[in-house]
Amino acid sequence: MRLTQGAFSFLPDLTDEQIKLQVEYCISRGWSINIEWTDDPHPRNVYWELWGLPLFDIKDVAAVMFEVAECRKANPTGYIKLNGFDAGRGTESCVLSFIIQRPTYEPGFYTQRTEIAGRMVRYTIQSYAVQGKPVGERY
Length: 139
Known about the structure:
Layout: H1 16-29, E1 32-38, E2 49-55, H2 61-74, E3 79-86, E4 93-101, E5 109-116, E6 120-127
Antiparallel strand pairs: 1-2, 1-3, 3-4, 5-6
């Protein structure tokens, strides 16, 4: 199973050189950059953990790549993504988001069936990635 969230998710993983080119593009557009990570890649988990502070008014690709390397060291088996934010009037939101690291093994998801009133059945998606660490023990 391969997680497909964000731009480039259907392509092979980007190399560091390709990531640098995307960072250069963000900088050339005047976008702020942030790095996020998670061990729970559930499709509705859009609030990943923020790595450090957002990089506002950054002009140096090396500074961003340093933060990427530090996040990779701290989270060697997690998912890491890079986001670009446009603060321009009328946009003021995330304009680019892509995964820059994923675990070597991605366990995927399963469907949990719950019977509710009136013989109705509700299905939810659960992540195998968090089964080994229950809520409250993951961080």
